Amino acid sequence: MSFRSIQGQDRVKQVLQNSLRSDKVSHAYIFTGPGGTGRREMAKAFAQAIYCKVLPDDACGQCLDCRKVEHGNHPDLHWIVPDGSSIKIEQIRDLQKQFAYRASASGTKMYVLEQADKMTVQASNSLLKFLEEPTSQVVAVLITDNGQALLPTIRSRSQWISFLPMGRVQMKEKLLAEGHAPLLVQIAVHMAAGTEAARALIQTNGFAELRNLVIQLAKESLTRLPSALLTAQQKLAKGEFSEQLPQFMDMLILWLKDMVQLCLGSKDDIIYTDGMDWMTQQALSYPIDHWIACLEQAIETQKRLRFHANPQLALENILLRLKGV
């Protein structure tokens, strides 16, 4: 994987490639930003570029070292992921033991910590000592959704690399070129920060069905409320989609944003384009205050569900609000 193969994040690529060209690679980096923005791919491309024997600032993808990184068996590259819910001190100690040995011909050892913010306090303190006193030429990459969650002393000893959400137009073009269904692409790019995350959403079992369920419940709430309440109970609160309730709320919020726009007479950037006619009719049947109140309640419900609010009661309340009861 080369830097050229990664879509977007041009500023990040420029910073890393400049460090390679000038032979000023930092001993530690924090790759921080929302999931799906290519942090893991960038770390892999960076590792390949460091070990590549052909190109000075990128990976050729063909030399032995590039292929070893690609296949996950380069002796000087160590990739650490949480053991269960956290990265434990034993994992950091094992890493330190590995790094006590001399590197191979490359002369550089590298490690990548995924979800670095999930290190235990003990693991963080052990890593800090390792950052302060490396036993050899070492490059560390810490990948995290929230760099601020890392110890201040770790942050101060690392170069901060921010990954920004990719533009929706770019994401949409790439996913459509890959052959994904346009209706699913349209909603996925509004739910994800990068192409990788949007693609994963589209390929998730039940993603298309969940989108259809949003439309079904919205229609039933406005026309046959008792049926909507029963469907929500059977399929969301206790049924097959109960584990996907957060995604359902994301989709419902996007639907409500469409309704606000349609009520205001705007049809630009509508996400649920396949329901434009009936949605427009319903949107104009209520005042704009109604749709704004529904949207606000949906956002508040989403927050409350994160703190284990009763799913059935929360869903019933929002469906009742949709109907204006």
UniProtKB/TrEMBL annotation:
InterPro entries: DNA_pol_HolB, DNA_pol_III_delta_C, DNA_Rep/Repair_Clamp_Loader, P-loop_NTPase. It comes from the Bacteria. GO terms for biological process: DNA-templated DNA replication. It catalyses: DNA(n) + a 2'-deoxyribonucleoside 5'-triphosphate = DNA(n+1) + diphosphate. Residues 242-322 form the DNA polymerase III delta subunit C-terminal domain. GO terms for molecular function: 3'-5' exonuclease activity; DNA binding; DNA-directed DNA polymerase activity. Keywords: DNA replication, DNA-directed DNA polymerase, Nucleotidyltransferase, Transferase. Its EC number is 2.7.7.7. GO terms for cellular component: DNA polymerase III complex. It is an enzyme of class 2 (transferase). The keyword Zinc does not apply. Pfam families: DNA_pol3_delta2 (PF13177), DNApol3-delta_C (PF09115). This is DNA polymerase III subunit delta'. It comes from Paenibacillus mucilaginosus (strain KNP414).
